[in-house]
Amino acid sequence: MNGPSLKTALPGPKAAAIIERDGRVVSTSYTRDYPLVMARGEGAWVEDVDGNVFLDCTAGIAVTATGHSHPDVVKAIVDQAGKFLHMSGTDFYYEPQVQLGEELSAIAPMPGPHRSFFGNSGTEANEAAIKLARYYTKRPGIIAFFGSFHGRTMGSLSLTASKLTQRRGFGPFIPGVYHAPYANCYRCPVGNRPETCAAECLRFIEEQLLMHVVAPEDVAAIVVEPIQGEGGYVVPPNVFMQRLREITTQHGMLLVVDEVQSGMGRTGKMFAIEHTGVQPDVVTMAKGIASGLPLGVATARSEIISWPPGTHASTFGGNPVSCAASLATIKLLRESLIKNAEVVGAHLLEGAKALMEKHRIIGDVRGRGLMIGLELVRDRQTKERATKERDAVVRGCFSRGLLVLGAGQNAIRLSPPLVLTKQQADTALEILDQALSAIGRG
Ligand SMILES: Cc1ncc(COP(=O)(O)O)c(C=O)c1O
Questions:
Q1: Does ligand 1 have an atom closer than 6 angstroms to the CB of 230?
Q2: Which atom of ligand 1 is nearest to the CA of 148?
């Protein structure tokens, strides 16, 4: 497969017919930014049902870490599927789950021994972390951050504070959740400059929340994304995570890092938290962990995750086929793809920064590895959010054969499979350049 190559108007006739059927039977809550109907994929290429080929800089929301249908991952899935599909790790034992537990212990960003809880998605990984933190500390409170996304089931959704539409109409949420400002240096919540940042935004936690609203000994955990994903690909300074570690240690709270989007090699290290030198107590994973098969994991130090049988479990969690896909994925990440994310990511970031000189609508470019965000603004001084323009660029990329997604109110996210080549990165930049030029803001 090679491309980009567009053969029909978009959507093509077959895609249009499927979308029409979808409209009658599939939940209207899904967010489809443009009419892509996938037929097959290979590496960073996606072919739609009409034979159009796109370069994929979404990886299905940062999931297909090893590229679409990597042969090693497919083989692991087929081999395991031929043996057995399910036996519930909740009630029985099977080796792939044990092997994955061992592997996760080897890569965890904090000293062991560790244990892992297996679910099926990012939100389940975070539900497990929330329950674990409450159970272990015997405290009810959880601190999370504005702009964060942790999932859409009731526990995780109570922490999520990204787009209002995700919360509107669904309350009341679980009690005991408090939100604090995230260190978004482009829009510093306390008006500081990145050069002199000492994570002053965390004073809100120390001098407001923990002084006036909730006693430190009532807080079980601080849950944080090391890089905000859905919130706009926001990279906080390292001092932010370091201060969070200090605050949690000082008050006996757990530090839970949600690596659902930023983990599994995407940032050029196995976990984004590793860029900061901070060791968390619990790490949650999903998305890229099994290259597209459903799997969510919460890994913690064994001392913390020692809850008795029956306290938490899942029928499907840690499905043997997903575990096999994950083992093959992690092997590929360790062998070459984390390095590729670092090298090609640096190239893509540099190229995206160069686009800033040509397109004044790009207010900020940030990222680590192949987790890159471009924030679009109507005016670089006022930083007025260019939301409509962002949406137009996303659609403009699609109409030129490049798949990208929005993030936050006005950012474009680049989260390609970690197999992306420099040449493919250049193709992505060229198309982005054209789509930005086409919206006519120069
Ligand atoms: C950081 C983060 N946490 C949790 C989730 C929820 O994952 P899932 O959609 O698999 O439940 C997401 C999904 O985008 C995410 O980006």
A1: yes
A2: 1
